[in-house]
Amino acid sequence: MSKLTAPAFKAEFLFPRYWPTLLMFGTMMLISLLPYRIQFLMGKGIGRLAIKLMKKRRFTIERNLELCFPEMTPEARKVMIQKNIDNAGLALFETGMAWFWPEWRIKRHVRFEGVEYLDELKEQGRGVLLVAAHSMNLEIGGRAFGVRAPGVGVYRPNNNPCFDYFQFKGRVRSNRYMLDRKDVKGMLRALREGERVWYAPDHDYGPRRSTFAPFFAVDKACTTTGTSILVDATDCAIVPIAIIRDTDNGLYTLKIFKPLEGFPHKDPEAAAEFINRNAIEPIIQEAPEQYMWLHRRFKTRPEGEASLYS
């Protein structure tokens, strides 16, 4: 298993080409020291400003909500869009909280629900596939989870080595170790050894190792079949998790769902639908306004079908 080695800070990071990156992370660290309420207001403001400059992202949010919830009234959709934009801005600050807050501050802001399920699985020595969705506050959810029950993080190294240094350092603070998202063998071994492995199969990762499965009201959403590979080879438990911002005052709930039963083994297509229906959708429904609707979730279409974003 190729555990990723923590990147080292290099003298070259002090060269001018990396000054913007250093400035960004220095600003994030300083802002993370501010009271939560101030960060919340700043986040909403930045989100609303950014969306005016990125009209395509706003269209993506609107289109995704239209496709997934066709029964939603235009008025309700408008409210949801505004809340989602606010959450998009706050996500920047929540990343700073996740990467720079001390442990005591994380504990002050997050409460845990359903931890007993993980405790039972640990006693059994069983590996756990932690199924998450890309909520806007996923970073702070990962940090909080690690404070209570450390697991194995899975991520894509950033092409900017200076950025990657801070990203890795922030994410490994509460994870036992990190694996490259392409390291399937590493994930399998971790699960067989009884580890908890983070996994977010909710995005459109392209046609490779994927199938088309229902996702809310969309009949054919490109969905990874990687879940079948991991579960069939290890017989690990599947535990959905959600991080929910409860109030504007910085209180969060990390909800750990009951382990899923009835997973269709040796059937990648049925498994993809099973995970969407029984894990991803329930997670999103906990706080749909906090989900990453700005991702083009349905960009990959079956051959011959027109784009849903035209």
Any descriptors?
two-stranded parallel ribbon; alpha/beta; 9 strands; 310 residues
Describe, in plain words, how this protein is organized in 3D.
This protein has 310 residues and is an alpha/beta fold. It is 48% helix and 15% strand. The protein has helices at 19-31, 36-53, 55-68, 74-100, 103-109, 115-124, 138-148, 161-172, 184-192, 226-234, 268-286; strands spanning 110-113, 128-131, 152-155, 177-180, 196-199, 210-215, 218-224, 237-245, 252-256. Helix 1 packs across helix 4 (74-100), helix 4 crosses helix 7 and helix 10 (226-234) crosses helix 11. The longest helix is centred in the first third of the chain and has 27 residues, at 74-100.
Question: What is the secondary structure topology, with strand pairs?
Answer:
Blueprint: H1 19-31, H2 36-53, H3 55-68, H4 74-100, H5 103-109, E1 110-113, H6 115-124, E2 128-131, H7 138-148, E3 152-155, H8 161-172, E4 177-180, H9 184-192, E5 196-199, E6 210-215, E7 218-224, H10 226-234, E8 237-245, E9 252-256, H11 268-286
Parallel strand pairs: 1-9, 2-5, 2-8, 3-4
Antiparallel strand pairs: 6-7, 8-9
Helix pairs in contact: 1-4, 2-4, 3-4, 4-7, 10-11
